[in-house]
TrEMBL record:
Organism from which the protein derives: Galleria mellonella
Record's keyword terms, sorted: Signal
UniProt KW Ligase keyword: no
Gene3D superfamilies per UniProt: TolB, C-terminal domain (2.120.10.30)
Leader sequence segment: 1-21
Identification of the protein by name: Regucalcin-like isoform X1
Family: Belongs to the SMP-30/CGR1 family.
Superkingdom in the source lineage: Eukaryota
Domain SMP-30/Gluconolactonase/LRE-like region: 51-305
Gene from which the chain derives: LOC128201350
Length: 347
């Protein structure tokens, strides 16, 4: 009930400065740690269990995200601050992507891709586009984005128990018009994450969280062919032993922003020099994903989680599951690509 209610959003401002030297005694290598200023989205006590897949629609000035375990898709209108929720009771909802020339949305529910009609109720709201990872009933779509041609890239994740995910059970697929047959692009993977394309669309950046690596492929935009897999950065080499790289986005300078799950931070990576150049530490550990939002695309949205959190950790990090907006990063994003599906409104 609580999650279905239309909730008005209050923006409360917490201004927090982190003292870099405090961290540099602990981790001498963290020279790139930056001060941050951020806001927290503070609802009427609405917290997200596992907020993920934040995405900004520049045409409508709306921010979307999902709350995976509660099976909700959220939308926030940036001008009116009106926040609404669409509940789906089909299983985990991991991904939301806007659809070109349509008010419908692509959603990843369990291991299926649907078009979601916000105005419709019950089963009629969902139209099946494709089922992937068939024969693996406990796999879910963990990450998904559209590329410059409007293809949908869907990465799956194997069965999860607590914070552990079964090894090598998943894959990365792409789906495109007119049949949306899922084509295997990469297999096996453990936890597909962090998809984004270079500004010139000739490189695809990718994360299989289990590898702890941010990787790159040569990308042929016309065909969707990927090749020449290589490592951009291994976060283990920076001493992040517990952290795994999760969601990723790119800024207007072509640099990558990656949420480090269990490390409570966002790093900015230069893919050319293959180094971390900035790091922003948040007051929670479970940072899941990032995207640029706002009419100027200069707000960095960071989603977080309280899934599997212990009561102890929650009392130390009460903002777990909140959504943060980072300001003053000195850069901004670029508009995302939408999913191409002709006549989506009539499907
Ligand atoms: C939120 O929760 C706190 C503590 O549980 C309570 O004091 C407060 O009244 C609640 N606020 C709203 C708007 O429900
Ligand atoms: C495209 O961008 C990538 C990443 O910035 C760069 O490595 C590559 O050389 C560029 N390719 C072309 C053809 O400009
Ligand atoms: C057929 C149609 O309406 N195409 C439009 C879809 O949206 C893009 C921009 O998002 C337009 O450029 C197309 O003309």
């Amino acid at each position: 009930m609580l999650y279905r209610a239309i909730t008005v959003l209050f923006l409360s401002t917490f201004y927090i400065k982190f003292v870099s030297c405090k961290f540099s005694t602990l981790y001498p290598e963290e020279k790139y740690l930056r001060d941050i200023s951020y806001n927290v989205f503070a609802y009427t006590n609405l917290t997200f269990t596992h907020a993920e897949s934040p995405v900004w629609d520049s045409e409508t000035n709306k921010l979307y995200w999902v709350d995976v375990l509660n099976q909700d898709v959220h939308v926030l209108d940036y001008f009116t601050w009106r926040h609404t929720t669409k509940h789906i009771s089909y299983g985990e909802v991991n991904v939301v992507v806007p659809v070109m020339n349509s008010s419908r949305l692509l959603v990843g529910v369990r291991a299926e891709v649907y078009l979601l009609d916000w105005q419709k109720h019950g089963d009629a709201a969902l139209r099946l586009v494709a089922a992937i990872d068939q024969g693996k009933p406990d796999n879910v779509i963990n990450e998904g984005k559209a590329d410059a041609m409007g293809r949908f890239w869907a990465g799956t994740k194997g069965p999860q128990r607590g914070d552990k995910v079964a090894q090598d059970e998943a894959a990365l697929y792409s789906l495109e018009q007119p049949w949306y047959t899922a084509r295997v692009k990469l297999k096996p993977v453990t936890i597909s994450n962090g998809l984004v394309w270079a500004l010139n669309d000739s490189v695809m950046y990718y994360i299989d969280s289990e590898t702890r690596k941010i990787e790159a492929f040569d990308f042929e935009v016309k065909t969707g062919h990927i090749s020449n897999r290589r490592t951009i950065l291994n976060i283990k080499e920076y001493g992040y032993n517990k952290a795994i790289p999760d969601g990723m986005t790119i800024d207007k300078d072509g640099l990558l922003w990656v949420a480090l799950m269990f490390e409570g931070s966002v790093i900015r990576i230069d893919p050319e020099s293959r180094t971390i150049i900035e790091k922003y530490k948040l007051p929670v550990s479970r940072t899941t994903s990032v995207t640029w939002a706002g009419p100027q695309l200069n707000h960095l949205i960071v989603t977080t989680s309280r899934r599997n959190i212990s009561p102890d950790e929650l009392s130390r990090e009460p903002l777990s599951g909140a959504i943060f907006i980072l300001h003053q990063t000195g850069t901004r994003g670029v508009p995302i690509y939408k999913f191409a599906f002709d006549n989506a409104d009539c499907y």
